[in-house]
Amino acid sequence: MRLLDPVLRVVPFSGRDAELAELTNWAGGSETVRVRLLTGLGGSGKSRIAVELSARLSRRRWRSVWLDPADEPQDVAGACRGPRVLVVVDDAASFPRLADQLGALVDAEAGRVRVLLLARTGREWWTRLRWASALWADPACVPTSMAHVGAPAQTPDRMVRTAASAFAPRLGTQTPDLVVGDLPADADPPRFGDVHAAVLAVLAERRAGGEETVVDVGRGLAALLDQERDRWVDTDAVVARALLCGDRRDLPDRLAELHVARTLTAAPGMTEVCTARITPDEAFEVAMFAFRLDVDTPAVTGAGRLTAALLERVAAELPDDREYLERILRLFPVRPVPAAQAADLASRLVTVITDAGDQDTTGEAEALGVRARALEEAGRTDEALAPAERATAMWRRIAHVDPLRYRVALWRAMRDLAVVSFGAGREKEHASLVEEGVAAWSSASEADSVWTEPELAWGMHALELTTAPGSVDAARWYHERAVAILRGLVARDPVAYEETLARVQGNLLLLVNRGRPAEALEGLRESVAIRRRLARDRPDAFERYLAYSLSNLSHALAGIGDAAEALAAGQEALALRRRVVRKAASAGRSGVPRLRFELAWSLSGVGVLLSEQGRPHEALSLEEEALAIRRDLARETPDRYREELATSCSNLGVTYSRLGRFGDALRLEQEAVEIRRELVRGSSSSRYRQHLARSLSNLGVRYSDMGRTEDAVEPTREAVALLRQVARDDRWQHLPDLATALANLGATFTDLSRAQDAIGPLHEAVGALRDLSREHPEKHLPGLASALTALAVAFGEQRRYVSAAASAREAVRIRDQLAATDQRRFGDDLARSVRVLADMESVLPTDGARRSHVITARSERA
């Protein structure tokens, strides 16, 4: 086991020449202090790179200092005196006093200091260093950078051969001829640590007489751990508790994590046994262990759930001690701490600080910010507003005294308040905070880019979501800018920023709603792929977000007419959301509004897809369940959920109509119109007017279904007028709804034998649907065929049989193609168009004379 220690340098260094060369260049330069964060998953070779850098720089008369978590700041300052000093902090996230230790370097009396921080991810502790440590307080800002250690630049075969040649002499055996076992097609590239452990396990077996020559790099750690366990005196549970609480037993972190994960998931209650009566110091070690598990889950079924379980135990055992509360919360402000526990710990910390009379400090401001983020994450947005506002106000006062040091903290607090304000429906406050933040981040110096880029990416995304309805290109520009920044951040710290990239790409529903669904597909598919991979290891943490991306992908696919894939994505999202709600119910959180809202969203989306595909019986129960949930939500918080309630009323009304329940359908659509009129009166948003127009157009159809055709005219006319207004700002977003309303108006006039009034709206609807069908034929060809058939009927009633026959022929041609792909869905429509065409052709001129004819085809309704 000791042979894996990177300090011993047993295996020759190779495959990381580019990274080492870059770090060597970084160590140069004239600045007094430079800091670099080097990220990489466990076993990727971070520590070995630092060891090699130390050796290379020592030949240039640099001195290396490796910090320990227990080092006092004054001792750090004393150890770092000299002309050239490299300071290495391995597993930097586990250093509870890192800010003070780095701050001591200001007084180190060194010529040049280079600080290399090694960690699996930066996440929150890294951002906090900017204001927590005095190292960055000097106006001559410390140049700070990040880099990531990715997959090795070597094949697994070469890594195995190199390791075998190095380990065999140390073990007193001949170098064997080893081959790499097959890897799963979707497996990540093996890391140096995993390969070395696998080789060492095979060589140890051969010393005992084994003849195995295949190296299973996927199971190398497990095999080596099993061999190690054979020599243990203590039980697995005793060792697991010791490892959890800080006693490493000379096991590398990766082996320790694997053993704890296997032990704690093997039996119910083992987590409680191994964390009973832990001390505050041990609680921090347990939390740190959970942090590593969250970043780099071992290949153990169920290990992903350990993070939350361990941190719930930490929260239960932690006393009301300010130092320890701050330690835990600085490490886990929101994820992966269960939001309820994080909010409770933050509340306790605020109380401790207030009771001590130590108010308006960075500690109180941080605690308030953590509480706000945790409450917002838990879906308790209204409760999050007050602490978010207090935190921002406090950071404004603190940053006013020392803006250079604390502005990053202020920016973060402003972002948190903006998120909470948006969730609470306070759009003006949200917009103001975003504009202020983007202006500040954009004007910051290049030296601060490490700290400003994450905030700027979020700001660009926020601007994307709040652009005016007609500014699709502006929204697209903001989106692309945010994605470009995030790709750079992912390249430097994927653990911290990959989920953020997935979130930004998953919000492309804006393009879908603005009539450009095809442009959203690539980003949405990337979001699904990222979140699917994350959910595979951490279902409890990421399944909910995977459902979000799948739901939006379903909507985009429906927008281009890909009904089958849209339904598959929507049904997967629905299944995930049902599972999330079941888990929440088992934990006593089934009433969380956000989870119910998301479930209703999926129920409604899948119901609409089924109904549109001619399966209203299957859609019925889903849409009724969605309506029931939204009624409850609107009763609890009407201002926030009435819009969704109106949507469910309208959707279910359409399905009732398809099932012949015309009276029920009419009552629901009338309710939707009433709600949406109130929303329009209270807001100038074009979105509300568009939705009101949809309901008015549907209301006209519902009246016609009931035989009240005269009553259908006025709401349908109002729908057309509203849609003409909003279409002036964004034609392509509103053109589908306008075309539908025009077709419905024309059909209504036809039913009233007012063919002259019908032809204009129907002709305009056909023109619009032709344009839309060129872009997305699968989505809009059915509507075009319907409008053409209605237009043929209207022409026929005016005895314009040539024009009628031409429209009917085109409708038949389109519906023939559609029925060839889905006879069940489009067969009846095709038969209707054929009957209309037959009627028209039967009265075309014969022998130079017209024959009178009664048009028997019923008018076509959109």
Automatic annotation (TrEMBL):
It comes from the Bacteria. The keyword Repeat applies. The keyword Repeat applies. Coiled coil: none annotated. Keywords: Repeat, TPR repeat. Signal peptide: none annotated. It holds the Pfam family TPR_10. This is Tetratricopeptide repeat protein. It comes from Myceligenerans xiligouense.
